[in-house]
Structures are given as structure tokens and as C-alpha cells.
Amino acid sequence: MTATILVAFDESPQSIAALRHALLTYDDATIRVLYVNDPWEWAGADGIDGVFYPEEAFERSQEAAEEVIAEAKAFAHEYDREVTAETKIGAASETIISYAEEHGVDHIVLGSHGRRGLKRFLLGSVAERVARRSPGSVTIIRDEKLNEEE
Questions:
Q1: I need a surface site. Which of 2, 4, 20, 91 has the fewest CB within 10 A?
Q2: Strand partners for 31
Q3: What is the spatial distance between Cα 134 and Cα 98, in angstroms, rounded to a whole number?
Q4: What is the mean pLDDT of residues 119-145?
Q5: Can you name the residues that pair with 38 across neighbouring β-strands?
Q6: DSSP alpha helices (H): ranges in the chain?
Q7: What is the DSSP string of 85-118?
Q8: Per-residue pLDDT reduced to its tens digit, 5-30
């Protein structure tokens, strides 16, 4: 039976390194690439009623998600590999874990950290939450350039 590998992909250097790792390490596996479109990243605050999700912002986020998925497919093609790639809407760690459970994923590969900014620090590490709650094994990849700089 062919293993199913899930790569969480958000275009960060760490997620690119994670996809490269999966493509080079799991020759015979089915590789699924998942981009999580988190509503909190495209939500706004109106100052009165709290948070709102403007349709235009949602549409832009969906277009950006499609571009990220196309980039992941093109990257895999450079390695003569095909991947199944899709996007889901939700909170990153919860969506990655749910996706893995729903699709019978054997192993998850993700970057040590992805999107930058204050939000990542306030909410904690997606990689850490996925590693703690994953139904299977997890490999966390750091970008090689980070190792050289440190």
C-alpha cells in the first residue's frame, strides 16, 4: 500500500523546504499539498460590531490561495512529481489535522514556521500544535538558509 504524505504549504521558505523534503524522501508516496486559507488573515475590524469578512477580501484570499497551489504544483513538476494540491478554509493547525484524519494521511511534513508576524507569536506555533495532535507521525523542516545564518 502506498503511503500518503501531507505537506502543509504556505509559500514560506520553510514550507518550500518541507515540500522539497517530501518530494525527495518519499519516492513512492502519494503526496498531498494543503494550503490553509485562514479567515483571520483576511478579516477586518469595523470598530463597532467587531470582526467582519468583506467579500472582496475573501475573493482576494481565494485568488492568492490558487496561486500558492499552482506554485506548489509547479515546484513538484520541477522534481518530475505530481501532487494533489488543494486549499481549505479554517484555522491552520486544526484544518491540517482534520484533513489528515479525513484523508488517511500516514505522515505530515511541514515547515518549522510559516507566515510571519505578531499573530504567529500570539497564537503559538502551528507546527507545535500539529505535532502534538496529529493522528500520525510528523516531520518538521527548517529552511536550510536559516541554519546557515544562525
A1: 2
A2: 5
A3: 9
A4: 77
A5: none
A6: 13-25, 39-42, 55-78, 92-102, 118-123, 126-133, 144-149
A7: EEEEES-HHHHHHHHHHHTT-SEEEEES--S-SH
A8: 999 999 888 899 999 999 999 999 99
Cell 507545535 locates to 128
pLDDT (average), residues 112-136:
70
CA distances in angstroms from 128 to 46, 62, 124, listed in the order given: 32, 26, 8
Per-position b or e across 93-126, b if 16+ CB within 10 A of its CB = bebbbebbeeeebbbbbbbbbbeeeeeeeeeebb
Q: Rounded to whole angstroms, how far apart are CA atoms 94 and 34?
A: 12
All cell numbers assigned to 46: 469595523
Contact in structure between 93 and 101 (CB atoms under 8 Å): no
Q: Which residue has the higher pLDDT, 58 or 83?
A: 83
